[in-house]
Amino acid sequence: MAIGASTMTNEKVLIVDDDESVRWVLKKSLEKEGIETVLAKDAAEALERIKEGDVAIMLMDIRMPGMSGFEALEKIKEEGRGISVIIMTAQATMQNAIEAMRRGAFDYITKPFDLDEVNILVRKAVEVRQLSLEVNALRAEVREKYEGGLVGNTPAMQEIYKTIGRVAESDATVLVHGESGTGKELVARAIHYHSKRAGRPFVAVNSAAIPSELLESELFGHEKGAFTGAVSRKVGKFEAAAGGTLFLDEIGDMNLPLQGKLLRVLQEREFERVGGTEPIKTDVRVIAATHQNLEKAVREKKFREDLFYRLNVIQINIPPLRKRKDDISTLAEYFMQKHQPGSGKTKILTPETLKILRAYDWPGNVRELENAVQRAITLAQGDKIFPDALPPQIFKPGHGVGLSFENFLEEKLADLVERMGGLERGDIYSMVIQRVEKPLISLVLKKTEGNQVRASHLLGINRNTLRKKIKELGIRGPFNGAGEEEGEDEE
Fold it and tell me: Directed axis angle between helix 463-473 and helix 427-447, to 10°?
């Protein structure tokens, strides 16, 4: 029975043996199964051959001139190419079998071998490889889905990524601390989807969002008749997360009696449903999060000290967005891509809009930034997002957002030039001059209480020019225009 080309598309089996007759027999046998093969006479040639990237499976002898099959196997595994290696040997010793598997071989066969057995073994290696590729693709898809939003290149975020990498493979309890909206759940999900529990459930519970009298049932479940309204058995979150990760958000809001029950679960790895008597074993990794200062809560007897130390095995502190402002532009661009409409032109943030985003303190952190960007995309009329599309608490018209006058004026002019890009040559200059002159002259006249002579001195223009500008620009107001007593020299 042929293995099927679909599973081996553009991938080959590499046969490595110093015996030409062995290479020839295996090649003919596998080609009858529809498998494309390539040959190498020793390990050095094999290592060069696999650099071409199309080898999926290897059949390799142990004893060959030069480098042994075991040494080659170790190099292949170190390079992480994902090649399944089947070791062949004429010496069927226990030591060889153990050593082959210890070094990461897919399987081990002895010479002389049955060709049907070899074909079956290669078929199995192909199927396992295909399954592995599908699982890895699925995991990558899941990780991409659940890690979205954990974005940033500042040193603080790089340290968080390193910590996630260090703790992911362990089962150590993690305590994530950060203000609301900083992405505590995203960190918890990243830990889960990089861990050995990635294929199991990730279950999140917000302790602050569930009334305290219901939270115990939510976590541990209840038996039928345990309390009024318990008309049937309910499975709790600890059971729902079996084999996976339970994320307890806002753990600082949990009441003291329930903290004691949680501590018992963490210590004993078992619990009882509300109204139940049977202990239920649990295999769940717990990741907790809070915006509160739990050390202070412990001192104030609002949080159990023993539970705090049980949770605080690994602590990850997420800085607020105002303390990592270099990430704001990166996050804004990420959210721009995430929330772009499905059709039409791609919208972009203008430089002035980005500067305003970077200047804001973001009390709602990353969540507030995402909401602001999504709002701006929705409200922006064209393909450029100007500051007036931002929420009013972020963009206050007339405020310089902490910029120098020169920079503020430059940003405003850049905004105007972007908006007026379709006008004829010469119109923008005239429009800008008029827009600057009228408010400037009006403000100076207001400052001088309408005295045109004093206003012309402040402006650095003569009084006749000022009179002409007042008329041309349609400036209205009570003006004191005599001026002879001021000794004005007319041109």
Answer: 110
